[in-house]
Amino acid sequence: MRKPELAAAIADRTGLTREKASEVITAFTDQVSAAASRGEDTTLIGFGTFNIRSREARDGRNPQTGETLRIPASKTVGFKAGKALKDEIR
């Protein structure tokens, strides 16, 4: 499901316009992104948690040349599903 489809589904369920639902989705994603940039987790009880994960520096390989290169340490965003979401999928 893409953002327009999600906005349409939210609009149908809540009575909002599609434009308003799209604004709500954008505000949500902006807030999750802002929290992640500050290093904070975002938890939605029953749905899941967006958190910051650290990746250690490691050696990699250029697939075209076979040359070994150093991949620097980095941070990424992870998601851990909550119990209600896991139960819904099962």
From TrEMBL:
Pfam families: Bac_DNA_binding (PF00216). One of its GO terms (cellular component) is cytosol. InterPro entries: Hist_DNA-bd (IPR000119), Histone-like_DNA-bd_CS (IPR020816), IHF-like_DNA-bd_dom_sf (IPR010992). GO terms for molecular function: DNA binding; structural constituent of chromatin. PANTHER family: DNA-BINDING PROTEIN HU, DNA-BINDING PROTEIN HU-BETA. Histone-like DNA-binding protein which is capable of wrapping DNA to stabilize it, and thus to prevent its denaturation under extreme environmental conditions. This is DNA-binding protein HU.
